[in-house]
Amino acid sequence: MDTMTNRRAIIDIGSNSIRLVVYSYDSLQGLVEHHNIKTVARLSMYIDSKGNLHEDGVQLLLETLAKFKEILEDIQVKHVFAAATAAIRQAENREEILVYIEDKLGFSLSILTTEQEAYFGYLAVIHSTNIPTAVTIDMGGGSTEITFFKNKELVHMHSLPFGTVSLKRRFMENAEMTQEERILLSNYVMDQLQPLTWLHNLQVPIIAIGGSARNIAQVDQQRKDFPLNGIHQYELQAIDLEDISSQFADCSLDELKKIDGLSSDRADIIVPALETFRLFMDTVKAPSFIYSKRGLREGIILSELAEKFPLEFQVNEVAQDAIRHILGKFHVNEESTLHLYDIFTTIYEQFIDWNYIESLENEQLLRYAYILFYIGEHIDQDAASQHTFYLLTNLNVDGISNEERLIIALLASYKNKDTFKQYVSTYKKIIPANEAKKLRDIGALIRFTKGMDVLGRSNIKQVTLTQSSDEIVLTFSVVGNYLLEKYQAEKLKKHVEKIVNNQVILVFN
């Protein structure tokens, strides 16, 4: 896509906030977000006793959209899709609002149905996580959309007639929720969930979308001093929600605003959201609560892109596509990164048989780490290891959990024992000592193999390994000139010798 003219914009008119997102897509780099601008509007608070969006709310909407229009004109983005959800959908005067906005600004607003809103959230989740079966919950300001998918196929969807803003309005008389109000809210939410028999006792993960879920995940990361950057696919347990609920229960509104990870503009609505999530998790009997950064807006975008580029949006190849897009950002061809991968796997598997190393539980991560090995050299060759580790521990990678991303980062950045020890020391809560040793040895083996690929060619065709009491012999079958490969292998074989604690002999013929 051309940098400017092929950019697209989504305006998400929610009950709590109105957001403008500008993006572009190409097959190499994937979906790229260029701008993300939010205004907290709380449109649900402007619904009057007759069900109309009050004039003050309409004017706030108009003013916000007028600002967005000015921004879009300034950055020359002409393709705009403006989607309105619960606040406008539920307003009795919605048709008048649509006519008024189009007359004043030339914007044609699309009011999403509850089914569309639920579907777009589901679509975003299946294209950005590797979880085959789960329940999604997207809690907005005025409604809550839920779905159940199995093997990434949509099975059920439903819209609950409440959101964070409407729950606050109905059950909180003052800034803080009382115990009596909490009980009333819980009874109301359970009454809404009770008829949904398909939801009960599913015992599958919950994937939560939206700002309230994001804030709860951020609070949990802060209170646990979670060392890895990135919020997408962050996982909490039921006990975590209980602990956060207890923490919030003792806080005034001013104290909530000071909690690390909690946005001040959500402090007054976070308790109704958290209590709903707890009840939802208990109803589903979910083993985990996972936050998805991808939601409604990404679902709208994906619905368009998947139709245009069906081969590039396979729901069972999310991680593979994400890795390909990382390479694309640095203009690296994936095939070129896999030189000598068969050589690596041959040595790796033999070393497992000989009990020199332990196998990695998810061996697909080996391939990803091999592909991304020293990707940071495209920033600075002299600091390739450091840049690789920083990049991979700070990127959100769709389809790969936070822990898996850390494993890939440690393997792909391996330089030597000392740098590995330095990198892993910050993550002892995630990577225990026995796991660290395994990753260090595998990383050293990748370093050795990738180091032989000095000219970006595949002159080494095969390797055989023999073992004796005092040495291990690696015999490489080669074609053409192999002097540089041999030089690099001799230089780097010390990494292999440290794994096997023995002498390593290299033979090229």
UniProtKB/TrEMBL annotation:
Name of the protein this chain belongs to: Ppx/GppA family phosphatase
Residue intervals of the Cyclic nucleotide-binding domain: 70-137
Classification via Gene3D superfamilies: 3.30.420.40, Exopolyphosphatase. Domain 2 (3.30.420.150), Hypothetical protein af1432 (1.10.3210.10)
GO terms (BP aspect): regulation of transcription by RNA polymerase II
Domain of life where this protein originates: Bacteria
Xref: Pfam families: Ppx-GppA (PF02541), Ppx-GppA_III (PF21447)
Similarity-based family: Belongs to the GppA/Ppx family.
Coiled-coil regions, chain positions: none
UniProt xrefs under PROSITE patterns: CNMP_BINDING_3
